[in-house]
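USER:
Before I trust my own judgement here, I would like a peer's view. Write it directly below this note and I will take it from there.

ASSISTANT:
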Amino acid sequence: MGRGMKAGKKPKQGGGAKAQQQQMAQLQAIQREMDKVQAEIEEMETSASSGGGAVQVTVNGKKEITEIKLEPDIVDPDDIEMLQDLVMTAVNEALRQMEEISQNEMNKVTGGLGLPEGMF
């Protein structure tokens, strides 16, 4: 046993109710900031293209496709598979970019908290 400790007596734990209240207030402030950042992200847009710019896809922060542009010369009725592949490639890249933007913005809020990646 440590000096000055009696058998069965636990060492004092600092904090108590006041520390818990402070932690709750901090968490609530972080949650408000995260909600604000999420609303800002939802207003953002990013675009990606494939086929040398023949297909361009724009997505918003809600990860919804807001626009698809196709160059007329890319539309070949005899090669629909190529067009499908180009659209899929552009969509996937635009979604990947938006996910990266979203994570970077949220990390600005949660960066020092040690929260698991992808939690928010």
User: Anything to note?
Assistant: The chain has a mean pLDDT of 86. Residues 19-111 form a domain with the Ybab; Chain: A; fold (CATH 3.30.1310.10).
